Amino acid sequence: MKTTREKIEAFRKKRMDLIEGSGEKGAKKQHEKGKLTARERVRLFCNPDTWQELNLFAEHRAINFGMQGKDIPADGVITGVTTVDNKLVYIVSQDFTAAGGSVGETHAAKVCAVMDMALKSGAPVLMFNDSGGARIQEGVDSLNGYGSIFYRNTLLSGVVPQIAIISGPCAGGAAYSPALMDFIIMVRGTGQLYITGPQVIKEVTGEDISAESLGGADVNASISGNIHFIASSDEEAALIARKLLSFLPSNNLEEAPRYGDGTLTWSEDNYLNTIIPDDPREAYNMLDVIHHIVDNNDFLEVKAHFSPNIIVGFARINGDTVGIVANAPSAKAGVLDIDASDKGAEFIRFCNVFNIPIVTLVDVPGFLPGIEQEHRGIIRHGAKMLFSYASTTSPKITVVLRKAYGGAYLAMCSKSVGADRVAAWPTAEIAVMGAAGAANIIFRDDIKNAQDPKAEKKAKIEEYENQFSNPYQAASRGLVDAVIEPKDTRRYITLALISLKNKRDIRPQKKHGLIPM
After folding, report:
1. What is the CATH number of domain 270-432+470-499?
2. Which of 398, 392, 396, 386 is nearest to 481 (CA)?
3. Which are the catalytic amino acids?
4. Residues 6 or more apart from 41 whose CB is under 8 A from it?
5. Phi, psi of 235 (to 5 degrees)
6. Using an 8 Å Cβ cutoff, are 141 and 105 in contact?
7. How much is the pTM?
8. How many helices (H) and strands (E) does the chain have?
9. Tell me: domain 4-247, CATH 3.90.226.10, correct?
């Protein structure tokens, strides 16, 4: 019989063997590919003093196709819990050096166990994805494992934040778990995200494409819009995740974290009084406006590479976390199209479920016209913006900077779809459409029959502008709460946030609304 000391020594050796996994050989292969190992990823993200690994000794029980007796350290995935900036976070890190990080029954069970604990304790989940996909030797058990993960992704949705980091291949079923999470950070050059790989596509369709061109970071960020952030390395991905978590509550029952002592801090910013060009067709940089309103010019833009005509992201105003949604006149004149509507709606709904106030900065000439947009369903996609704002119960503050035309004005959180506060700059133009288009319709006969149609048209445009292309008509109807100087915008938003701190919004009881899909 072994002594207590011998048992402890045997435990230490077994534990160390599992931690070392594939050893230097496996680590070297990862490093040659520009990737960190699974444990290196955990270490760079978490506080080593508070890291508690879970289910280290878990083993697979597969026996078919040469699996019986095959050693897969920790079954190819590291799971545990730690604190990050005093916030509890559950971590999953797939180990590509152990059976390619493939997902089998036990691998999936470890992931599910962590997700179950995150749900019970109300803590975020962070997952490093680096896997060859389903463990084929385990057949339906592997598929069942994936399904169990997807089910929990859905249970956790809207309860705790879920963040996926794509550090390596993520194909087939493996792509759906990240897609069900709230944010995806992808490492350029090493991360890949697609349903069917280049080889399968070539066999089925005859199309020839590289893995990077099919599902690399830049493609997923700018074309498909599948991911939210691009990182240049695993280290940068962890930094992005850490910063993102700093803006978010741990769960849906908490308020977003606030910084500072609550002292009101603002000053007039005369720069904002000069940012709107005299020519209404001239663009300007909306990011400049954002940076001059938020604390310390600090703005974490989300999906910066996708649909740049709308800007979304997180910031703080007087220490309070806010989500910002803004049109970008420098890209497609800030128009709302299918992609912008999807991007905006996704972000709005995230802010709502995690009690984050939304500040909307409006300069929108309308929805993008065109046959392609109509045939692809701009009505359905545009309705997502309307639905998302109207169903949001978090504080909603809207500032109209310049153009706010037609249905797009409503879709950018007007008073009628639930904005709690609406302010407008003197440069705001709140109307059904632009003055030139309106004049052509309203005064068509007057212009047509005039001795000088060109002069008459100019006069009618000015008449329409004087009456409607301003914020005062809307203000007279109570649809704008205040017309403010641009330099006072930060002050207005700060006080509005304070007054809405304890907002309560009573809605009809139902399972959920049916957002246009």
Report:
1. 3.90.226.10
2. 398
3. 172-173, 407-408
4. 93, 128, 165, 167, 234, 238
5. -60, -45
6. yes
7. 0.94
8. 20, 17
9. yes
Instruction: Report residue 185 as tokens.
Output: 């950070």
Residue 125 near residue 87, CB atoms below 8 Å: no
Q: What is the dihedral of CA 120, 122, 123, 124, to 10 degrees?
A: 100
CATH 3.90.226.10 intervals, the chain: 4-247, 270-432+470-499
Contact 327, 372 (CB under 8 A): no
**Three-class SS state of 166:** strand
3-state SS of 262-299 is CCCCCCCCHHHHHCCCCCCCCCCCHHHHHHHHCHHHCE
- Neighbouring-strand partners of residue 325: 312, 360
Strand, helix or coil at 165?
strand
Rounded mean pLDDT for each run of 10 residues along the chain, 517 residues in total: 88 87 81 91 87 90 83 90 93 92 93 97 97 88 94 97 95 91 97 91 92 94 97 96 97 91 84 94 96 96 98 97 98 97 98 97 96 96 97 97 95 96 96 72 73 73 75 93 97 96 90 90
